[in-house]
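Milestone M4 deliverable, item 7.
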Amino acid sequence: MFTIKRQPVTGFSRAKERLDKASRVTDWTLHDLRRTMASGLQRLGVRLEVTEAVLNHKSGSTAGIVGVYQRHDYAAEKRDALARWADYVDALVSGTKANVVTLRM
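Output delivered:
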């Protein structure tokens, strides 16, 4: 995921420094972005095993013997989850996210 022509991407520290400067927020880590996305995917109704697959976690039900037999890669599900997350973030950034909840009577 984080490669360019099969070479690892470097310079995360410099990128974070630029983000800190541009946002004027410095008390965060890159891992906070993963945590925020994982929590957000759950809020959007993405199944836990798909969220775990997006994060490339091998724990819980996919660890141990289940992981030996469970070989589904969740590629389509991950693609859908990340598209939903991108739409959510885009709506937040663009200000188009409605803050209205429909109540049922």
